[in-house]
């Protein structure tokens, strides 16, 4: 497995961006984010390089009101490099069953 994988780094960023969007979404009493995958990379890999700032590894904690700046900001030509700021702490706590992994976050 490569230490840095651009596509997986962007996947992780997209997950965090979706969580940020859900936190800003008003009008519902119950909000949940669920991510399901058969790729253990996301739940177990300690990312390095540009992706280390957007890791989804189980046990990763993102504090509220603390900017998450992707390591590739101003380096790659992608439109996914703005800082992500959570209004509430987010803990990546993956659950595995057979060859499947899921991340469930109460928003």
Describe the fold and architecture.
It is a single chain. By secondary structure, the chain is of the alpha+beta class. The protein has one domain (6-106). It is 21% helix and 20% strand. It has helices at residues 6-24, 41-44, and strands at residues 32-37, 61-62, 90-91, 94-97, 100-106. A 3-stranded antiparallel beta sheet has the order 1-5-4, with helices on one face. Strands 2-3 form a two-stranded antiparallel sheet. A hairpin with a 2-residue loop joins strand 4 (94-97) and strand 5. The mean pLDDT is 91.
State the end-to-end CA separation: 32 Å
**Which structural category do the helix and sheet elements fall into?**
alpha+beta
> Secondary-structure element order, as H and E?
HEHEEEE
Give the DSSP E fraction (strand runs of 2 or more residues): 15-25%
Number of domains: 1
Average pLDDT over all residues: 91
Portion of residues within helices: 10-25%
Q: Which shape, going by the Cα principal axes?
A: globular
Helix count, DSSP H or I runs of 4 or more residues: 2
- Low-confidence spans: none
- Please list the strands of the largest sheet in the order they lie side by side: 1-5-4
Main sheet record: 3 strands, antiparallel
Q: Over the alpha carbons, how many angstroms does the gyration radius reach?
A: 14 Å
Please tally the β strands and state the result: 5
Short description:
The chain has 107 residues and is α+β, with helices and mostly antiparallel strands. It is built from two helices and five strands. The strands form two sheets. The chain has a three-stranded antiparallel β-sheet with strand order 1-5-4, covered by helices on one side.
């Amino acid at each position: 497995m490569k230490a840095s994988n651009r596509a997986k780094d962007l996947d992780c960023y997209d997950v965090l961006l979706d969580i940020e969007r859900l936190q800003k979404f008003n009008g519902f009493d119950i909000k949940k984010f669920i991510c399901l995958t058969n790729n253990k990379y996301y739940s177990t890999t300690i990312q390095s390089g540009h992706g280390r700032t957007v890791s989804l590894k189980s046990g990763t904690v993102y504090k509220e009101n603390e900017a998450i700046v992707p390591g590739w900001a101003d380096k790659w030509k992608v439109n996914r490099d703005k800082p992500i700021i959570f209004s509430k702490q987010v803990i990546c706590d993956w659950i595995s069953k057979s060859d499947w992994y899921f991340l469930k976050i109460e928003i």
